[in-house]
TrEMBL record:
UniProt-listed InterPro entries: MetalloPept_cat_dom_sf (IPR024079), Peptidase_M12B (IPR001590)
Gene3D superfamilies in the record: Collagenase (Catalytic Domain)
Tree of life domain: Eukaryota
PANTHER family: ADAM A DISINTEGRIN AND METALLOPROTEASE DOMAIN, PEPTIDASE M12B DOMAIN-CONTAINING PROTEIN-RELATED
Protein name per the record: Peptidase M12B domain-containing protein
Organism annotation: Strongylus vulgaris
GO biological-process terms attached to the record: membrane protein ectodomain proteolysis
Pfam families, sorted: Reprolysin (PF01421)
Length: 243
């Protein structure tokens, strides 16, 4: 029987997924091992597509902005993100079960480790726990405007870093059924076989400068620029995990 776990997203300490100061957390003290590669298939619902006038290049540009922000979290933990495709999903208010069905029935999808739907006007995130590299490796991430959160925010393009914190928190729970520390996530990664270094680096649809993967039109990629990122955080939204 399916049960639902609701996990709030408080501002936690340096061991958690968000910093108490509202800035990008500093995980430099975490004991990293070897890089692990996560091939991400991004999907957008009809609301997101409409927001960008159904223009593929505008949608991809927005996804690239988002993933640059997510990479600031992932790279610290030696997680290398590769965006293998960005696809539209028909319909509004797509549920997790419907998105899973889309993934299982859509033909010729590019091989990937996780598929995440960016849903318009959706609060928080939801995913099947322990689903990474399995048939249930799907999740939904969204950010809904509320006046007491950010009055000017209509959708994540106006605040990609706030959205990235929700996205990465949700992504990390593909391997966990509870809240975890940064070190716990690092320690878990070697046990997930599909996230090891591939024999051949994945074909990426959106080269992500700073992800540590040499992609199309890149001569090298050493990771994000070494500078301080100060990210203003508002009250964040709850994360819903399904199991």
């Amino acid at each position: 029987m399916t049960s639902i776990m609701v996990l709030p997203l408080p501002r936690v300490d340096e061991k958690g997924l968000l910093s108490s100061s509202g800035s990008l957390p500093d995980w430099s003290d975490a004991k990293r091992k070897t890089p692990h590669y996560v091939e991400v298939l991004l999907a957008v619902d009809a609301g997101v597509a409409r927001h960008y006038g159904h223009q593929r290049e505008r949608i991809r540009a927005a996804m690239l902005t988002l993933m640059h922000a997510v990479n600031l979290y992932a790279f610290q933990l030696d997680i290398r993100l590769a965006i293998v495709d960005v696809l539209p999903v028909r319909g509004y208010n797509v549920t997790l079960e419907q998105f899973l069905d889309w993934r299982l029935t859509t033909e010729d999808l590019v091989p990937h480790d996780v598929a995440i739907l960016i849903r318009h006007r959706y609060e928080g995130g939801i995913a099947y726990v322990n689903g990474v590299c399995k048939r249930t490796a799907v999740g939904i991430a969204g950010l809904l405007n509320r006046r007491n959160y950010c009055p000017s925010l209509q959708f994540f393009p106006e605040a990609p870093y706030e959205y990235a914190s929700v996205f990465f928190h949700e992504l990390s729970h593909f391997g966990f059924d509870r809240e975890c520390s940064a070190q716990a996530l690092i320690d878990l990664l070697p046990s997930i076989e599909c996230l090891g270094e591939p024999r051949r680096l994945p074909r990426t649809i959106l080269p992500l400068c700073g992800n540590g993967i040499v992609e199309e039109d890149e001569d090298c990629d050493c990771g994000p620029a070494r500078r301080v990122f100060t990210i203003p955080m508002k009250e964040l939204l709850p994360l819903v995990i399904l199991r």
